[in-house]
Amino acid sequence: MKISEIIKELNLAVLSSGDFLDREINGGYVSDMLSDVLANSKKGNIWITLQTHLNIISVASVKDLSGIIIVNGRKPDEDSLKKAEEERIIVLSTSERSFQIVGKLYEFGIGKNDEDI
Amino acid sequence: MTDIVRTSKIQELAYECKVEEAMTTDVVTVAPDDKIVDVWMKLRDKQISGLPVVSDDGLEGIISVEDFIKCIIQGRKDEQVKDNMTTHIEFIYSDEPLIHVIKKFEKHRFGRFPVKERDTKKLIGIITKGDVIRCILKRFEKDYYEEEDKKNKMRNIFNDIKSDKTTVILKYEVKGKEFKKAGEKSGFLKNALLRLGIATEITRRIVIASMEAEMNIIIFTDSGEITVLVEEDKIKVNAVDSGPGIPDIEKAMRPGYSTAPDWVREMGFGAGMGLPNIKNCADEMHIDSKVGQGTNLEFIVNLKK
Q: Which residues have CB under 8 Å from B46's CB, separation 6+?
């Protein structure tokens, strides 16, 4: 599924890299611990987190994640968004909580076919 | 064909490629005096849809499958080619760009154009839509490989440089407590390794490990240095700091064990997964640490041949 499709379905705000919304999502990962994401997320995953600082962009970049959804209505600072643009990382935000967002993503079929769950 | 003209890269190639590059030079022809039945043999044997009709004076016309079928239906299979061929010939010169051929195909319904050399006016080839498409695809392929080659030029650094041992050394200084910049140096390392032609998967393993090492220096020490040695068969990374040292390495290696303060954990660091993560990514890992003096964390990733 393309990121643009979930943006529409989940009513997400696009905070950065709006030019790359046709990127494919091949599953998801939820965690607020960066090391955990570094260790366990997979290339192309959408990452759901409440962290907003600059380092989430580095993590998403290193792991080639398809994008980040920041929950609970949190907003990343300008530095993070600037770096996100540079690294072409799509940052999305929602006022909903991780649980709701993940539930909806799963309903749309994201993560249902992950072989390694 | 209009689609081809509209697309810019293809258009560019269509201007760049000359007819002579795309045309078939091995032209099967018939003579004006040949019989229609002979035409059939040639069309069938060579699996083509039209033949130039050539006499000693040069190109006289073209006889196509359609012309042939008309003759058969009207019972003229024993007649001569010259009485049944198309004499209105649209030809093209070999030095013209392919875009002219494409335009010609749009304008006329012909399936092929004879190609003449401009100076001698002699028939030297024939060009069909298939030839045009093949030529452009070939160019695409060539451009693609050239682009790939450019990308991979550094890949051969170890083959290109003659020495008994070549090592590329990258040094990154890491300042402690600068959380805002955590991961920055590892980002530089990622680009550097890719630039050196290290495979994406290997690069990812090294960068995950170096990011953890970088974060450890930032969380626990005042400053440190990450040194990366890129060699032909392996990449060795040393993260050296003059921090507090690790009192119990065995404990530190245990997943989930962390001595990070709460405020660090709130940022998502200090999950007690740093060292285990590094170990998972590396083929070898050594920790040399003295309390009160500092830590040297070394990890090695082997490069597959």
A: B28
Show residues of chain A in contact with B209, CB under 8 Å.
none
- The nearest alpha carbon in chain A to B265 belongs to A33
Are A61 and B212 inside 8 Å of each other by CB? no
Q: What ipTM was assigned to the predicted interfaces of this complex?
A: 0.74
Name the residue range of residue A78's domain. Answer: 3-107
pTM: 0.59
Instruction: Give me A90's structure tokens.
Output: 């799509």
**CATH architecture label of B161-302:** 2-Layer Sandwich (3.30)
Cα angle at A10 between A4 and A12, to 5 degrees? 70
Q: Is the CB of B252 inside 8 Å of chain A's CB atoms? A: no
pLDDT tens-place values along chain A, 117 residues long:
889 999 999 999 999 988 889 899 999 999 999 989 999 999 999 999 999 988 899 999 989 999 999 999 999 988 899 999 998 999 999 999 999 999 999 998 898 776 544
User: Does residue A116 lie within any of the structural domains?
Assistant: no
Which residue reads 């060795």 in tokens?
B236
CATH 3.10.580.10 matches B2-144: yes
Distance from CA of A106 to the nearest CA of B (A): 24
Q: Give me the sign of the Cα torsion angle A86, A92, A95, A101.
A: negative
**Residue that wins the pLDDT comparison between A69 and B305:** A69
CATH number, domain of A40, equals 3.40.1390.20
